[in-house]
Amino acid sequence: MYDGTTGATVNGSLTGVIAGDQVGIASSGNFQDKNAGNGKTVDVAGSLNGGDAGNYLLTTNTTTTANITPVVLNLTGTRVYDGSTGAAASLFGNNGMLAGISGESLTLSGSGTLGDKNVGTQKAFAPSGLAGFSLTGNGGTLASNYTLTGGTDWVTITPATLTVAGAIAHDRTYDGTRNATISGATLLGLFSGDDVVLGNAGSGLFDTKNVGNDKSVTTAMTVTGGDTGNYILVQPTSLVADITPLSIHVTATGTDKLFDGNTRDKVTLGGEGVIAGDQVGFTNTGANFSDPAVGNGKTVTVTGIQANGTDAGNYVIDDPTTTTTANITGGRSSSFGVADGTLASLQYAVDPTQIATPYGVAEQDTVGMFTGNQKKLHRPIERNRSRDDFTSGLSLKVEDGGVQMPKNLLP
Question: Phi and psi at residue 279, in whole multiples of 5°?
Answer without folding.
Answer: -95, 95
